[in-house]
């Protein structure tokens, strides 16, 4: 099979990324059909069958498919086409929708790091395989979905998995991790996201006596009580707890068999970014955000409440979260606790799969000695909908060697977003090799 060199892959992906950046898909309003059409034209030129699937004509998703022989597992390469909006355009060093390529090889613009970079390399990998005449055992697809950044319009992945069950895939590669961490002990770690924490909204309502504001009574005021309850929520500092996926993270980084807290402390000391990346994975985080009190300045309310954004370790039930909050809130101030909406997220994929092993081997070969580090994501990606609907084994990884991790991260949802072109060649090569690895398999992952 004749596949392009890494330099040719880089140039092809760079061209496509620059065009994608010039296609403004700020969400809201999105307008992702322009990006989906651009990709469809590119992929069809290269022999890949494409279909635009839209609930809203301005917000189409792209499904591109290299059909398999029907004898092996399927793989979906996934990337969202929308980007977060910009309100500080004049402060960017290079204009955010120009696709500027600078002298040191960085491509600048909204989406260069989240995630038109990943989208371009996944599309180029599929195009290169189609040109080379690759015939996988199972279907190889690219799903370029709308409305990931906002998600409220229900036109992207959440809608697509219901409207088009044929997007089901045994394996998925999507956004999640894009880091290369040089550890204090000389090792290099490349994270791969294998699951996501669950998000639950909790409402804590303090109860008290209502009355005129001219005669405030701090002891029975719902507002004073709420203030005390919020302080207790803010002081939440639970003992860290591991599940198999995060125990594997600690094993890789810190070895040993001492309690989780000690191993976590040693792991976090290995790199400045690891505190942020790892600490939330071993505990429930509780963020009090919105407040509700009296509707009038001169009335002390009988009820005052706070909405809390709670993020739990995958597998945590609502009852376990309720118990954790109840202990925390204590019993000296009367309150009500409710969960107005169902939990979102919290899915996780096993790491004992041929795709994980292929990723591990590829990273070890191309970044000699580097360690593939399974992590659980603090936030949310569309991988969750694919795991939930189809039981897909979904990982988030976009390997880098050339863009400093700090530079890539600093651009996400922020000013001066950029990526080095050499990473486009590197990542396109990675995706081609993963397609060849999964495309050559004959059995589906366990559990499907
Ligand atoms: Zn993203």
3D architecture notes:
The protein folds into two domains: 6-180 and 352-364 and 374-439, Zn peptidases (Aminopeptidase, 3-Layer(aba) Sandwich), CATH 3.40.630.10; 196-345, Alpha-Beta Plaits (2-Layer Sandwich), CATH 3.30.70.360. It is built from 13 helices and 18 strands. The protein has helices spanning 6-22, 33-45, 116-131, 157-163, 222-234, 244-254, 260-268, 274-278, 318-329, 354-366, 383-390, 405-411, 421-439, and strands at residues 49-53, 61-66, 75-80, 106-108, 140-145, 171-177, 181-182, 188-196, 198-207, 211-212, 285-292, 299-300, 303-312, 335-338, 344-345, 371-377, 393-397, 418-420. The strands form five sheets. The chain has a six-stranded mixed β-sheet. Strand 7 and strand 8 (188-196) form a beta hairpin. The protein is globular and about 80 Å long. It starts with 5 loop residues before the first helix and ends in a 9-residue tail after the last helix. Zinc ion is lined by residues 80, 114-115, 148, 175.
| Arrangement of strands in the largest sheet | 1-2-5-3-6-17
- Tell me the number of strands: 18
Taking the sheet with the most strands, its summary is: 6 strands, mixed
The best one-word shape is: globular
| Second CATH tier, the architecture of the largest domain | 3-Layer(aba) Sandwich
Question: Low-confidence parts, pLDDT < 50 over ≥5 residues?
Answer: none
Helix and strand content put the structural class at alpha+beta
Mean pLDDT, all residues: 95
Radius of gyration: 24 Å
> Could you say what the CATH topology of the largest domain is called?
Aminopeptidase
Number of domains: 2
Helix segment tally: 13
Helix content: 25-40%
**What's the CATH class label of the largest domain?**
Alpha Beta
How much strand content do the residues show? 15-25%
- Fourth-tier CATH superfamily name of the largest domain: Zn peptidases
Ligand roster: zinc ion
Report, as a whole number of angstroms, the end-to-end distance: 31 Å
């Amino acid at each position: 099979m004749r596949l392009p060199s890494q330099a040719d892959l880089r140039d092809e992906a760079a061209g496509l990324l620059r065009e994608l950046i010039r296609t403004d898909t700020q969400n809201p309003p999105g307008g992702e059909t322009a990006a989906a059409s651009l990709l469809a034209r590119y992929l069809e030129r290269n022999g890949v069958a494409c279909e635009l699937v839209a609930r809203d004509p301005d917000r189409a998703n792209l499904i591109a498919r290299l059909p398999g022989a029907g004898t092996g597992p399927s793989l979906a390469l996934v990337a969202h086409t929308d980007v977060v909006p910009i309100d500080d355009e004049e402060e960017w060093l290079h204009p955010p929708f120009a696709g500027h390529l600078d002298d040191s090889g960085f491509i600048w613009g909204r989406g260069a790091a989240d995630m038109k970079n990943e989208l371009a390399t996944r599309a180029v990998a599929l195009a290169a395989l189609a040109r080379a005449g690759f015939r996988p055992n199972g279907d190889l697809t690219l799903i370029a979905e709308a409305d990931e950044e906002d998600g409220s319009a229900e036109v992207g992945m959440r809608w697509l998995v219901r409207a088009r069950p044929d997007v089901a895939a045994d394996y998925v590669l999507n956004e999640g991790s894009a880091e290369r961490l040089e550890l204090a002990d000389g090792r290099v770690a490349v994270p791969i996201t294998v699951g996501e924490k669950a998000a639950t909204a909790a409402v804590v309502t303090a109860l008290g006596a209502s009355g005129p504001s001219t005669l405030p009574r701090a002891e029975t005021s719902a507002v004073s009580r709420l203030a005390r309850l919020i302080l207790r929520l803010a002081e939440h500092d639970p003992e860290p707890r591991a599940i198999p996926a995060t125990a594997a993270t600690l094993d890789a980084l810190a070895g040993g068999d001492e309690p989780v807290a000690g191993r976590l402390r040693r792991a976090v000391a290995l790199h400045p970014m690891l505190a942020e990346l790892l600490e939330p994975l071993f505990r429930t985080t509780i963020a009090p955000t919105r407040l509700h009190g009296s509707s009038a300045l001169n009335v002390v309310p009988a009820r005052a409440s706070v909405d809390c954004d709670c993020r739990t370790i995958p597998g945590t039930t609502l009852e376990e979260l309720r118990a954790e909050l109840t202990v925390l809130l204590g019993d000296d101030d009367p309150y009500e606790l409710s969960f107005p909406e169902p939990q979102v997220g919290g899915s996780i994929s096993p790491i004992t799969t041929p795709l994980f092993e292929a990723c591990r081997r590829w990273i070890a070969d191309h970044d000699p000695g580097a360690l593939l580090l399974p992590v659980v994501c603090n936030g949310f990606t569309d991988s969750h909908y694919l795991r939930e609907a189809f039981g897909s084994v979904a990982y988030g990884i976009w390997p880098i060697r050339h863009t400093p991790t700090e530079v890539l991260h600093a651009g996400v949802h922020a000013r001066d977003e950029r990526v080095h072109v050499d990473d486009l060649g590197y990542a396109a090569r990675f995706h081609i090799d993963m397609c060849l690895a999964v495309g050559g398999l004959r059995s589906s992952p366990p559990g499907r």
